[in-house]
Amino acid sequence: xxEPRAASLVQxxxxxxxxxxxxxxxxxxxxEVAHRFGPAEAVVAWHEGRRVSWSYDVLLARSLEVAxxxxxxxxxxxxxxxxxxxxxxxxLAALFGAALAGAxxxxxxxxxxxxELEFLLKASQITTLLFERHxxxxxxxxxxxxxxxxxxxxxxxxxxxSARNPFLQRLVCVPQDTDVPGDQGFIxxxxxxxxxxxxxxxNFIGDALVLARADALTPTDPGGIFFSSGTTSQPKGIMHAHxxxxxxxxxxxxxxxxxxxxxxxxxxGLFWSGQTVLMLGIGFSTGGTVILxxxxxAREALRLIECERVSFMIGRPxxxxxLQTAPGWAAANLSRVKYITRxxxxxxxxxxxxxxxxxxxxxxxxxxTVCTGFPSDASTELRADSxxxxxxxxxxxxxxxxxxxxxxxxxxxxxxxxxxxxxxxYLGKAPEECFDAEGFFPTGDAxxxxxxxxxxxxxxxxxxxxxxxxxxxxxxxxxxxxxFPGVRRSQTVGIxxxxxxxxxxxxxxxxxxxxxxxxxxxxxxKERLASxxxxxxxxxxxxxxxxxxxxxKIKLAELREMALRRLLR
Length: 569
Description:
- The protein is an alpha/beta fold.
- Helices cover 29% and strands 24% of the residues.
- The protein is globular, with a radius of gyration of 24 Å.
- The chain starts with 8 loop residues before the first strand and ends with a helix.
């Protein structure tokens, strides 16, 4: 008689055994790294040829300045403070300042359309909005006034009373250039005031009051909100406790296994949880420096990476493809670069030389990024192409998506997770709408665990392609296509097929200078993946053909419809 197989339930080691964990509040983290690394360079930003550098001491001082202003303007504990900015030092001062004051920072995407921004403002119920006016052709001052005319006609900042945004009271516009007083050409009015005027309101508030507020907070108090855009629905507001931020920031030194300070760069927005966690965790927990690029532009990115001696690059394959076509790519000195996320294309540069192994991991915005993984020094045998084991404090299970029953080890099902970095919940949703009866979050991701507790991710349950009875992960196909020379972006989808049920179709955006061949791409994939995973068709699209959400996620339903129309021509 066969013995029953063990259940797919895996526990990580206790959080108390996680090395390198310090203070477990957002403000506590900043104060601790400032105490450790005070005069060292923490933040660098460039704007129109001018370099701005803040030390850890200066970052703490600027954050306290924001906290004092929020307290002076009547911001109570747990009140929500919106941040609508590109990557700039003031973003970090706003993030840490709101948390030090006991408020909750709310990250808002600068990619938002007017309609999306209107939704975010209402869903987040913020009282104070700290925003940047001009972002890549957008005038957020004009957009905000168009969303709610009362913003431009309010008697004075702090007294906005609008039925369209009943919680919003004050809007503050940061200057275009960091550390340059005022904002050239900007005349405040209505509910909107200038950054320097707002900060001046806190001049009579002492740091002792701010620190008393910060010390009164607990790790499980609400810490902040991110929005995760779905591809078929409105963005979901995800509330995290202070400890979710702090635990993830502290653990990067252990995860990445580097010996000292890291200079880390990204051109992706800090309004995404992954960027906030990676940038600040990698940079600050090691006593390193975060290099902020306002928005991604390949030529400027290449210049920053070289002149700022960047050692860690955070980006995506389609951005690396743009770097390869940027003027100066071949001549650039990238010898300082040692760590790159999904960086196969960057490793091809003649000056890049590293033996660093990208840590295998899995995560979601709901778990404040990674929740399973291995340290980068884990052996090849231990990793085994898995996404790792549950991080300290986490428990993972695999369930049947239909019955919710726990599955045996080795069987494919839905991955569910709980632990200290799991979200507190979705805005406007009851706990039972977010978690199961045991407190697990159903991720919607497919995978299985093996007898050693390792999790093997197989893609999104909803995006999985079922072709000829076999499951194909679009992400697996796209990671291979991204390595093909001349590909800027790829998104694989399943298209209905009478014979196979679904057929695999790759939608590819070529680089502007590339001439791609469908058969060559299919042959390239066939060399690297099983035959049933090879796209039956490769469609070439423009960047404008890809319908995306405010967080740049591709709207799969619309893409499938477009692909089907093209195939039926």
